[in-house]
Amino acid sequence: MQGALRSLRLHGNVIKNAMLQHIRVMNPATLPTVFSRFESVSSARLEEHGFESTTIRDIMKAKGKSADGSWLWCTTDDSVYDAVKSMTQHNVGALVVVKPGEDKAIAGIVTERDYLRKIIVQGRSSKSTKVGDIMTEENKLITVTPDTKVLRAMQLMTDNRIRHIPVIDNNGMIGMVSIGDVVRAVVSEHREELNRLNAYIQGGY
């Protein structure tokens, strides 16, 4: 994931440098027009449409409730076998774990990695082991809020070597995003920024 993060940052720098080079090779007579166009855009507009503006909230809106695997859950008393079966059926890599009989109070999350490291590698039985025995407990979770910037979320996931991160607000957990969600959002943001820079040059603003 460190490599992916470096690649995306490099991609953003390449875009910026390419656009600056485009300006340098233009006819000098056109430069005042170009720069006046840049200067006419307010700082608020640039901030609104600049790099690194996408938030976790944007990702969750794009995914929609029907595609949001965060609402798939199991309990601490379920077998690991049943939890992994649910992940496979719904094509997700993690489940929210709740405490049985406590109105779905969050206990933690369980992931494919937990299954591989704590069941397969250790030769344990997935049918006789409870999810609560292998899950990442709530007090150890790395989390983000809906307003967290996407690149910040990617950095947290990279630094902590995790592929899924819960999203919380004042009322508790409201969703979960994966490293795939984050990477797609960053790539999309850089692509949109390139289009905006082209529009500036071509007179679209």
From TrEMBL:
Domain CBS: start-end pairs: 67-126, 135-193
Pfam families in UniProt: CBS
CDD domains, per the entry: CBS_pair_bac_euk
Keywords: CBS domain
Protein name: (wild Malaysian banana) hypothetical protein
Gene3D superfamilies assigned to the protein according to its UniProt record, in alphabetical order: CBS-domain
Organism the protein comes from: Musa acuminata subsp. malaccensis
Lineage of the species this protein comes from: Eukaryota, Viridiplantae, Streptophyta, Embryophyta, Tracheophyta
